[in-house]
Specification:
Order of helices and strands: EEEEHEEHHHHH
Largest sheet: 2 strands, antiparallel
Radius of gyration: 21 Å
Oligomer: single chain
Number of strands: 6
Shape: elongated
Helix content: 25-40%
Distance between the termini: 66 Å
Number of domains: 2
Length: about 160
């Protein structure tokens, strides 16, 4: 009978600190995510580890990394939730639809330095602010009022 951790230890490179990433040393998928063969099928290693440690993943939920490494499987860097939460937690995601609406509304009162000020506030470049104002990016951002049919139901 293997001791705890004996199964996973040869598959990862542990950092010096418990907060460091656990880099997957075995198979890596074309997307860059760690891959594990489990019961004859390929699964993402972070999902495999999550189920081993915390039990089944709820229907509709995803397991995602909160660090910037796709090949990290440190349980302290993993979270389980909806895809929308994973998208918000992504380090590539800077703006939410509500932020874009606020940026568009700020255009009406735009002064000389408004784009630079908004860029600093939201952690993007002034060019991104100007692209939002011009409508070349974030064309579909809208406030979330619930399902599309909810507005029709309220109007009746």
């Amino acid at each position: 009978m293997p001791s705890p951790g004996q199964t996973i230890k040869p598959l990862v490179r542990l950092g010096r600190s418990p907060d460091d990433c656990w880099t997957w040393l075995s198979h890596i998928a074309a997307t860059g995510h760690a891959k594990k063969t489990w019961h004859g099928r390929d699964v993402h290693a972070h999902r495999w580890l999550w189920e081993l440690l915390f039990g089944p993943i709820p229907a509709g939920a995803v397991v995602y990394s909160t660090c910037d490494s796709k090949s990290c499987i440190n349980p302290h860097h993993l979270a389980c939730g909806l895809q929308a939460e994973a998208n918000r937690a992504s380090i590539n995601t800077k703006l939410l639809p509500a932020d874009v609406i606020d940026i568009r509304n700020a255009k009406a009162t735009a002064g000389q330095h408004t784009a630079a000020h908004l860029a600093d506030r939201y952690g993007v470049t002034a060019g991104v602010i100007r692209e939002i104002w011009a409508g070349t990016t974030w064309k579909r951002a809208r406030r979330n009022y619930g399902p599309r049919g909810a507005a029709k139901a309220r109007a009746q």
